[in-house]
Amino acid sequence: MGCCSQKTQKVIVFCTSIFLIIIGLILIFSWQDISSYITRTELSLKNENTQQFQFWKEAPIPIYLEIHLFNWTNAADFKEGKPWTTKPEFTEFGPYIFREIHTRANIEFNDNNTVSFNTIRTWHFVPEKTRGSLDDNVTTLNPIAMTVGNLMKHKSILLRRGVNTLFKEKKVPFIVTKTVREFLFDGYNDTFLDLLHKLDLKDIKIPFDKFGWFYSRNGSVFYDGKFTINTGADDLSKLGIITRWNQSPRSHTYAGYCGLINGTTGEVWYPLKKSKSISIFLPDTCSSLTLEMNGSYSAFGLEGNIYAQTNRLFDNGTKYLDMDCFSPGVHLPTGVRNISECKFGAPAFMSMPHFYMADPSYRKAVKGMYPDPSRHSFYLALEPNTGLPLKIDGNLQVNLYLENISGIDMFQHVPRIMMPAVWFRQQASITGYLALLGKLLIVLPKAGTLAGYVLLGIGSLLLLIGLFITLRNGSKDAKEEPTTIEYYKNLG
């Protein structure tokens, strides 16, 4: 009975050791392929079952939008049609803070490893985080009048005089004062805008019935347009890269290099490894923003690279000749991007807040600009192995370009000046749960291989122990077994 028990134990030891050795060898030689498959699958947008898809379909991290409006404090000193004798002065109102939620709609998987979709962005006011009230009054240039003037500035003098007559008949103001809620999401009615829609003029097409910086955007399926991006199913290095926007591989707002749709939408990233720069396509600018690696960032034990703006970001050919196509129609000092064609003809220019990193002439032309790198930068921190966003701090400003337009009295004596209107700050940070998933994906390749070596070691040790015990017991049995002569002597 004891003998059988010992034999059973030996069999168990040998079988266990061989099993562990086999599993260990499989892990050592195959785990890299297994882990690569797991990583490639879970990080891709291959189908609705991947982890990346679930996070992408509705952003799992809290996103906040800060909105700062510039109030023209000495607007009363500037009379319509009169020469300017002093500088316009601005006071920053806000921030007015909103919780921002992104969800995908009209998702279509294509045969070429791409997915098409629309993005719905919804904003919810957060009064407890806000400084001020949505009922605050803000004074600024009349955006409707500015848009009409900009659309007319290159038309015939007869058309401009006709518009001038309409301005006077309808008493269109040069300066408007509205509440924050009207300037943002609610929009406000404008009698002149109503008239333009009724007249349906060929040269003045403004496709909204009210004005508001975010009017008609909250909850809209179509405002940002339709995107097609790579799923990364065939090649993870293509994950998230845009192939088409509104069915086109380029933006028609700009010519040449500037019209290329580069990069991602900013939410899903490919493994960056040692990429020196990244690009984000923003529908609000109808163009891509390129950020360059500049430092490191750490969150929940994950290490990432910071990609931030440089003086190239909003250059318009002054410092970098290839950026000249970002300034169609008007050539200005560096630091602003002409987005007029993207904003239905409004004389809108994008810059960093308070003209940070822009030519000093913009700040000197007005009062109240205080650029601060700690508050007015644009950067992303991304984990290089997975492309996981660790921190987003995007800051951009919209300005209205005021210039002399002959034939329209309202703009007859104004100087060329960039008038700040509003700046936005979008912030988001990785959560502890997402950081844990990121760590698991990072350590997965090494963990499996290490486990293989551990199992191989344990299995080999068990095998040696089993062989040692077997050999020792065999030697002991041989010594204890009596010889034939001794056997017969014992019988006698």
TrEMBL record:
Locations listed in the record: Cell membrane
Entry keyword annotation includes Metal-binding: no
Transmembrane segments: 12-31, 450-471
Name the record gives this protein: Protein croquemort
GO cellular component terms, A-Z: plasma membrane
Cleavable signal peptide: none
Pfam families on file: CD36 (PF01130)
Family: Belongs to the CD36 family.
Keywords: Cell membrane, Glycoprotein, Membrane, Transmembrane, Transmembrane helix
